[in-house]
Amino acid sequence: MRLQQQVAIVTGAARGIGKGIAEVLTREGALVVVSDVDAQAGEACVDALRAAGHQAQFVACNIADAQQVEALFDTVLSRHGRLDILVNNAGINRDAMLHNISEANWDAVIAVNLKGTFLCMQQAARHMRERGAGRIVNIASASWLGNVGQANYAASKAGVVGLTKTACRELARKGVTVNAICPGFIDSDMTRGVPEKVWQMMVDKIPAGYAGQASDVGECVAFLASGAARYINGEVINVGGGMVL
């Protein structure tokens, strides 16, 4: 129970990697505020966590909207008086080759993946600076290094890495750590939609020989959120079975 009595926000936690992160954090004792644009899926996630004996609440939020983000943090702080952990997981993809990406799909991906992460980090930073403690974990992607058909997604995740390192430099002396995790090929709603041939091609690139699970990412988040990781700051950690070296 490394995170007992701690309050965490996990964005995009209704399903997939975010849900896996929420499951691990609650199992470690944290009260997790599940945030997502999908209220039905978010409430279902919270119901499942509570049924397992864990502490969880749902707060709807579109992280690309500054007013909704402010309302999310105001709600959490008014209810609990503190925020110990922020996990910026919410993200979307609108994949296409560079010459075919529409301006609308470029803007949508940047708005959620990069602007949304910034908005949440800004709110968390204001509170954590005053408290002199806190953990921010940003979920980037192995694609930040570049990936065919993902110019918008890769650019947004590279931006998240830059945000992470800058925030580390600004917040470290305030007792706040800011790290990024880059999941590799994870078995999730997003990846299950790819053709079987593409799935196998991706798995073949992984030295471990299999796709990861959302809980693999969650375990890394839990470690970074714990006291054991107090001296780990500004890092970009791959969780991908060796796919990115």
Q: Please, could you describe this protein's structure?
A:
There is one protein chain. This protein is of the alpha/beta class and 245 residues long. It has one domain (7-230): 3-Layer(aba) Sandwich (Rossmann fold), CATH 3.40.50. The protein contains seven helices and seven strands. A seven-stranded parallel β-sheet has the order 3-2-1-4-5-6-7, sandwiched between helices. Helix 3 runs parallel beside helix 4 (103-131) and helix 4 runs parallel beside helix 5 (151-171). The two termini are 31 Å apart. The mean pLDDT is 97.
Helix content range: 40-55%
Query: Spans of 5+ residues with little confidence (pLDDT < 50)?
Result: none
- Taken together, the total number of domains comes to 1
Task: Please report which band the strand proportion falls in: under 5%, 5-15%, 15-25%, 25-35%, 35-45% or over 45%.
Answer: 15-25%
The count of β-strands is 7
Strand order of the largest sheet: 3-2-1-4-5-6-7
CATH topology: Rossmann fold
Keywords:
245 residues; alpha/beta; Rossmann fold; 7 helices; 16% strand
Secondary-structure map with pairings?
Blueprint: E1 7-11, H1 16-27, E2 31-36, H2 39-51, E3 56-60, H3 66-80, E4 85-88, H4 103-131, E5 134-139, H5 151-171, E6 176-183, H6 196-204, H7 214-225, E7 236-239
Parallel strand pairs: 1-2, 1-4, 2-3, 4-5, 5-6, 6-7
